[in-house]
Amino acid sequence: MATGKDLGTAAPLRLEHFPSLRNVPFRDQAISAWRVMHQMSSSRQDVFELDPQPAYFAMIYMQQVKHCDLLADGSARPARIYERGNVCFVDLSEGAAIRLMGAIDGIALVIPFALIGEMSDRFPTLPIRPRPRRNSPDPVLHKLGLALLPFLAGDLESSSPAVRHILAALAVQLVCEQRTFH
Question: Among 14, 88, 159, 162, which residue is least crowded by beta carbons within 10 Å?
Fold first, then answer.
């Protein structure tokens, strides 16, 4: 995976740089969420990196952002604009990295593969079929992300039962084939 050092930028951004919370919505596996807000200086392009792990990563964009995906060989895909309310959902088996071309404001989620199994056990008739997607509008995920914001900001207690329900709903919306769009 390309790093910030490889690209002549500042040290790469990592999830641990941002406010977070963890909760177990089903049985044993936890979902982690982060409030990713970063302003850039106009003189550089920051790289945001995710380590390989047996999990999916989702970013719910709370404001428009422009970035490009960085490939393992160091090359980059063309830059794209991700609109407010759009979502990316990717497999982290090999990690991931993006180069930011402006400020980012979003909610990041890491959903372990094992949690998908827990969902299948708990809801055997639910059509669970995780499908990676990039830059897809999803108003339901956006609204669930908005509901999570006060917990990530520390305005509400992150141990509230509401967090568990919001994270469970986010997971279901992300990985089920028949998602709800209202």
Answer: 159
Evaluate whether 36 touches 108 at the Cβ level (below 8 Å).
yes
Interatomic CA distance for residues 128 and 162, integer angstroms: 23
Q: Measure Cα distances from 12 to 48, 51, 153 in Å.
A: 6, 12, 23
Q: What is the pTM of this model?
A: 0.87
Amino acid at 181: F
Query: Which pair of tokens denotes residue 26?
Result: 């089903």
DSSP states along 65-92: EEEEEEPTTS-BPPPEEE-TTEEEEEE-
DSSP 1: -
155-177 pLDDT per residue, tens: 878 788 899 999 999 999 998 86
